[in-house]
Amino acid sequence: MTPREFSIDVIQQLTDAGYLAYWAGGCVRDLLLGKEPHDFDVATDADPQTVREIFGHQRSIPVGESFGVMIVLGPKSAGQVEVATFRSEGEYLDGRRPESVAFCTPEEDAQRRDFTINGMFYDPISETVHDFVQGQEDLRKRVVRAIGDPHDRMEEDKLRLLRAVRFTAALNFDLDPTTADAVRGMAHQLVVVSAERIAQELKKMLTHENRGLAMSLCEQLDLLPVFLPEVVEKTIEYSLERWQQRIEFLHQLPTNSFEVAMAALLRDVPAPQRHPRQKSESGTVRAVLKRLKLSNQEVETIEWLVRKRGIFDQFADFTLAEKKRLVVSERFDDLFIMERTAASVEKRSDASFEMVERFRNEVPVGKLAPPDLLNGRELIELGFRPGEQFKHLLGAVRDAQLNEQIETKEQAIELVRKLSKD
User: Fold this and answer.
1) Between 297 and 64, whose confidence is greater?
2) Nearest one of 304, 321, 310, 306 to 352, comparing CA atoms
């Protein structure tokens, strides 16, 4: 059973029990656009307790019961379906959640949703669209428009300021002027949204092929200075042309990697080598990424990519060991894609990238990353203790090996003894 088939089965069971049940939100939008939805959310007039009685306590899990939201578990191949009771919402006091909800009709439920294109319902049994917000008309017009008063919709959940941009860019639609005015006028209020939620929206924008359009809209609507002020300070201040280059850079990236896109966006922000005694990271790439609460792995990858900007221009001057270390590094492919795209956008020569490709293709794999001739355990057996000299000796042996100056363990040991006397 597919997720689609399971969601229809859920709707059929609710309907057979005498309740209204429809697909709701984004899946309806995608269906009407001729796209296959990723998820099939269900909205119903059955309350959470009734949903549990119909599907059983073991198959139905409350994830937001006070808001009327349940998860119904299906067969392994079908996954799960979110089932939410039609609801109207009280006042939003925290810019994210309503203080109260009341179960209601589909018409009233539609009015609480964010944008008209996300506010429709669809009955897959009768193949009927239920549209109380003119969402179909806005789909035809290719417009993202807030339902009702856009200021009210944005006030309810400030994350909608970014969601307006994401849907507009991802669908390549126009943003309704009144909705755009509301976003621009309330952009400064994005500060009340948690870093984690902002990062989640940013990831969705930057991993979509229209990432350049999304960032351009964020700048036009005054959102960018709120959540990425460093980009405004370090990129846009240089010149409008520099900012337009960054947008084109994002547009041309041939990968949907979040880390690569984020590194491209932060390309003009400092990414200094960190010193153990360095206390302040203010104004650096690391400061931006930590503020967004990204994972340590994401922080390390993005910071490394930014720090290595322009490195292929120096490739011809590298030692053989430096060349080998670079091309076998775990993040090499991402770095190469990013730097080659940057060179294309900035109209720079492709010669250095062709040189790197030739080197990588012509040097045998066994010589690019050969097994170590000497390891730490063996160095201890030779009488050395772990410490700074220990690390230096291992590094020197590895460099000599990669530079093809030594080839055997005996030569490695001889080099260690020679260096330890110097």
Assistant:
1) 297
2) 310
* Non-local CB neighbours of 304 within 8 Å, separated by 6+ positions: 331, 335
Residue-wise burial string across 261-293, b where 16 or more C-beta atoms lie within 10 A, e elsewhere? bbbbbbbbbbbeeeeeeeeebeebbbebbebbe
Helix (H) or strand (E) holding 262: helix 258-265
d(C-alpha 231, C-alpha 249), whole Å = 14
Model confidence at 31: pLDDT above 90: yes
Question: Tell me: the pLDDT tens digits for 73-120?
Answer: 999 899 999 999 998 865 655 555 666 567 889 999 999 999 999 999
| pLDDT beyond 90 at 124 | yes
Residue 49 to residue 46: CA distance in whole angstroms: 8
User: Rounded distance, CA 129 to CA 139, Å?
Assistant: 13
* CA nearest neighbour of 339 among 298, 311, 360: 311
Exposure on the CB side of residue 419, measured as CA atoms within 13 A: 18
> What is residue 273's DSSP assignment?
P
Q: Which residues of 140-162 are buried (b: 16+ CB within 10 A; e: fewer)?
A: eeebbbbbeebbebbbbbbbbbb
